[in-house]
Structure formats: structure tokens, C-alpha cells
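Comment thread on ticket #2218

A.B. wrote:
> Attaching the input chain for the structure job we discussed in standup.
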Amino acid sequence: MVEAYVLINVKAGAGYNVLEQLGKMKEVKRYDAVTGPYDLIVVVSCLDFDVLGEFVAEKVQGLKGVEKTLTCPVFRLKES
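C.D. wrote:
> Ran it. Output below, let me know if you need it in another format.
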């Protein structure tokens, strides 16, 4: 499995509706509205990087009100 943080900018007034739609997606494990350069942060889990890319490009970016996304895949550091 691949986990990622997806940072999302939405059009003014669209945040609640976008969060509501994200909450219905099985890949979404957590979602929060935040302040700063992005409006929403979503934690997602997908089978692999290809599925992650398709999920973000088709499902997240396809939501009405989403303007821009930044996907940050998670990896685990091992102690040396």
C-alpha cells in the first residue's frame, strides 16, 4: 500500500462541499480543513503509485471546486 498527503486548494466557498465528497471516497483515510497556502489536507491510501496517480488525477482533481493539488507520498526512513 502507498499512503500520501494530498494538499488541495479550492475555490472560495467550495471547501465544505469538497470535503463532503472526499469523505465518501474509500481511499481517503482522513481529511482536514487547514490554514496556510492550502485549504484542505487529505490522507489517502492506495494499492500502488499508479493507482495513487489515477486517484488524484481523476477523482480528486475532478471534484467541482478543486483548483490545485500537491501530492506528497509517504515513505518510511530506516535508522542506520
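A.B. wrote:
> Thanks. Noting for the ticket: Strands lie at 2-10, 28-33, 40-46, 66-73.
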